[in-house]
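User: I'm preparing a small set of examples for a lab meeting where we compare how different chains pack in three dimensions. I only have the primary sequence for this one, and I'd like the structure in token form so I can line it up with the others. Please keep the answer compact; I'll paste it straight into my notes.
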Amino acid sequence: MIKVFALILFFITALYAVNDQEILKRADSFLKSSSKSNQFRAYNDYKNLYLRALLNGDNKLKHSALKGIISSGHRLHIDVKRYEQEYKHLSHTSKKNYKAKKNIQVTSSHKLKSVRFYNKRLVLQFDKNLQKKQVNYFTLSDKKKSIYKYVFDIHASMLKKSNTLKQEGVDKIKLAQYNPNTLRLVIQNKTPLKIRFFKKGKELSIKIINKSVKTKKKSPKRLDRNKIIVIDAGHGGKDPGAIGYRKYREKIVVLSIARELKRILRARGFTVYMTRDSDRFIKLRNRTKYANRKNADIFISIHANAVGRKDAKRVCGLECYFLSTSRSSRAKKVAEMENSADLDEMDYYGKQSFLNTINSHNIVASNKLAIDLQRGALATLKSRYKNVKDAGVREGPFWVLVGAQMPSVLVEVGFITHPTEARRLVSRSYQKTMAQGLANGVERYFINSQKR
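Assistant: Understood. Below is the structure token output for the 452-residue chain.
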């Protein structure tokens, strides 16, 4: 189960680009060395190749990588029994699978009827209504080679052979039968694209936006408020979040702030949705799925921080995080606390393999959103309260932000374990001031986005 789950996670992350054959040659060279350090390098290279093979469905590379893992593992006295079993299984079935791929026998119940461009969207029409989990979307990127791929795996089949489609401003669009159950659409470009999609009945509609294509722009006279914002109140239901000073519960505090932020933003003309508007539990990965379904322009997840009793009176402050591989022990600790609701079933290796491959073209925009939210909240809070601490904008591997197709940020509104901050966080006036500051940050972000 863990292996299948980890494989699914790898499909929503981006691939660091280094030629596989070059790595394989390097690993083979290290393996021949008598140096222990070189043999460890070989083992790590083979493990990286194994992960790449899983991501790309490359059984030939997987076969070579497993063989290398087993050889180097034996020399280093590392337990590789699991890899040996997989290697035997792969060797036994490879010939059979190869023959099957040459002549794919379609087994899916859904059939693709037509593909067309309509109203600046790519529309795929099927013979039956699309189900909730029938479409899997993920991205792959190779920044060194300037290759960005946006991939849709659809549980369906084609009535005709593979198609290569064309759209102005996009290098390549390819539609083909990937395996008997999966129709794969790949949109490829040398610069990042903005992809928006939704399912309605029998249709999958995809909007492809190339921001690098120069178009005539009019200087905005005022802020465009035709934006969709999804606010996520952290934790909820069976998951109380952090339990702080005087047993204040994180899930209650952040829901109050989220509701107030929703009220203010709607009053300012924005379209706002909440992942939860009551005390109920929602899996972390379903929160960004909700934002994607709403075609949100930004996603804001609201949380309250916590530390142990030893540091409770000392550690305080407001922090904003955006999704990235963690670069500090502080970010790791906060992420582990916020991720615990959904990642407990994964082992340590699975977590690290996933988090070490995080890469998204939304990282830069998310960083800017985090900065604007931090500045807006601090400026508003400091105008009314003393000793409001700026704990900074940081990177962090937060599971709740994974899969978002828009700029996304996790806001830690303060430490619920700190006596002063905790009393403020449960105060209605402080919650309203905090929400007002975050709303100001949202407006600042969209104004700055128009200028960029």
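A couple of notes for your slides: DSSP finds twelve helices and 16 strands in the chain. The chain has a mean pLDDT of 83.

User: Perfect, thanks.
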